[in-house]
Amino acid sequence: MQAVADVIDFPDPASHDAAEELQSVTAAAGGDQRAFERLYRRHVGRVHGLCLRLTGHRETAEDCVQEAFVSAWRALPTFETRSAFSTWLHRIAVNTVMSRRRGLARAFEATGEVDAVELDRRAADDAPPLDVEAAIAALPDGARHVLVLVGLYGFSHEEAAHGLGIAVGTSKAQLHRARQLLAARLDLAAEAP
User: Fold this and answer.
1) Which of 36, 112, 116, 134 is buried deepest, with most CB atoms within 10 A?
2) Are residues 73 and 139 in the same domain?
């Protein structure tokens, strides 16, 4: 099954005029649903990609995208234009994924079943990755989250650490760990300098 962004040609948010973006944000903050729909169409592909890479599961990612945009709609009147709308929206998406993850962990603890980290590890052990996306999805949560935020989406370690609720040093260590694991899984160790 193809990702939402693969099926629909979503324009790159960076290619849009900043003034047009600000106008849509201002109108949407005032309750203009069509302006918010324009923002949704402009950003849904990248938010979906972010959520998919963080969760590793298509259905969960789609739920997180939906929750993130609902949260953004509700919080839009409080958005301050000091940062880019896309940065603010990505932070909401990361928070949505992390919140869902914490909820799942509590549910596993309450039922006494295997925890989510153990399930991720088992899934990674059962199916060797066939490509880079699969290799990223098979990484342990902490390493995958930092790799996606810092390595793929360009967040600073400080931003990633804040969004994930970890120390900056932990973010750096997780990125290093992710790179080592990816190199091993993709059999790149011999090619590394």
Assistant:
1) 36
2) no
Give the percent of the chain with pLDDT over 90: 35
Question: Is 101 in contact with 53 (CB distance < 8 Å)?
Answer: no
The verdict on pTM exceeding 0.70 is: no
Which residue type does 97 have?
V
How far apart CA 100 and CA 73 sit, in angstroms, is 19
Placement of tokens 């998919």 in the chain:
52
Which two structure tokens, joined as six digits, stand for 161? 């650490």
Rounded CA Rg of the chain: 18
Q: Which of 35-49, 108-122, 147-161 has the lowest mean pLDDT?
A: 108-122
* Percent of the chain that is helix, strand, coil (3-state, to 5): 75, 0, 25
Domain boundary, last residue among 71, 86, 111: 111
Same structural domain for residues 158 and 94? no
